[in-house]
Amino acid sequence: MKDIFSLPIAPSFSSELPADPLTTNVSRQVKSSCFSFVKPISPARPELIHYSASLLKEWNVGIENKKEFTEVMSGNKSFLGFRPYAMCYGGHQFGQWAGQLGDGRAINIAELEVNNSLLKFQLKGAGPTPYSRRADGLAVLRSSIREYLCSEAMHNLRVPTTRALSLIKTGDMVPRDILYNGNVRAEPGAIVCRTSPSFIRFGNFEIFASRQDKKNLTNLVDYTIKHHFKELGSPSKTTYLSFFEEVVNRTLSLVIHWQRVGFVHGVMNTDNLSILGLTIDFGPYGWLEDYNPGWTPNTTDAQHRRYRFGNQPNVALWNLTQLANALYPLIDEAEPLENILTGFKVKYAHQSHSMMCNKIGLYSFDKVSDGLIYTLEENLRVSEMDMTIFFREISSFESFKWQDFKLILKQCSYMEESELISHFPKWKDWFKEYKKLVLTENIEKKSRLDKMKLTNPKYVLRNYMAQLAIEKAEIGDYSLVDELYTLLQNPYDEQPEFKKWYAKRPEWAKQKVGCSMLSCSS
Fold first, then answer.
1. Candidate list 271, 281, 301, 386, residue with the active-site label
2. In the prediction, which pLDDT does 1 show?
């Protein structure tokens, strides 16, 4: 097996697009450039905590020298002489234009050819860049563990995502105010190396449009199509519209997957949406515990709940509208862009309906009423049902007896049984209609249940699980990081050896910082 450092360097972004002519690493406005060259800072005592063996296996490479690997993935040493850089982009944050943002704590350390495809390698937490503004460009162990585990968990849940290659503790202490309430404490520093075919976001296009820099907007769009949407053809107005439609479709598919597994991104700013339709920037994310469409894990979003679970499709459309505005100078017609955006609404309604039907094992989508799905979601909400466990339990439900279904409700609800019982009449009405539809479809029982289990994961990375791993890691015990990494490799499998993780959120985690309350520093 080849060593990872035998992979060929294949720069494209940093060789084909305009670079910042200034090399001074100070916070500033960067004009007419897609990126700035910048070096990571050297951590004090880098220590390799974990790396993704499954990702290396996919690439058919290994690590021959872990010391060298640690030096490179901590920023202490260059990746075969590659010149690192940070990307320039803008964005709308919480619905407001924020101007230039950029890679404030991310540095691209390599562009490589892997299995005949190009991949970018990026260190998160390796020091300041011209885009750091007043921040230090560093990351802490807490947030790095969350990003590392979640990236790989999402991949194995079959949700489009960037990936995480390595997790390194820097040996430095970093001051952080976890809830932005004035309580600063020093935390262990860490760096994640994440990989993706591209880290281009909606905001990369927005920054040039906002500055009326049509030349570089065109350069970036043409580059993106050439390397990531080449099937669309050479640059033209028609191609640009096809490009936008493809981004819309990928973003739609991404959000459907998030809703399917109960994932809440927490900070869906336009600078946090990938042009490739990948999950990117794992900050204050979370999975639904009780089915609450109004829940957001982000304390910064607590008042307006813009990024709540039930609003993610609407925010995706809003963000796509901002991307359409950014691309407008290349198309110079609003109507075709508006038609594509209108198509998002129609497609989302259809795909969301189909997804929910899949979750409950009904495959004659056109015969399942929207009312059945709406009633299910409302029953889940008012009965405070654990989303993951409920859908997994009905993926093994064979008897179709009301008495047995009531046992599932009791198992999955966060309510006291005496309170839950008051919701049984509505559940019984829904159950009768659901049972009738299942029997009408007449699909072989095992086939139907097996298919449901491939839609409804048994295990997700609940916030309390990540928090337990963080607390152990902060005292030098990384065993739980490894255990959760192993568990999340196969989230749809039964894995009886890990059955302790197939459980509702414990009571102690309901209001605990890191479990229910997270910030953008998380």
1. 271
2. 85
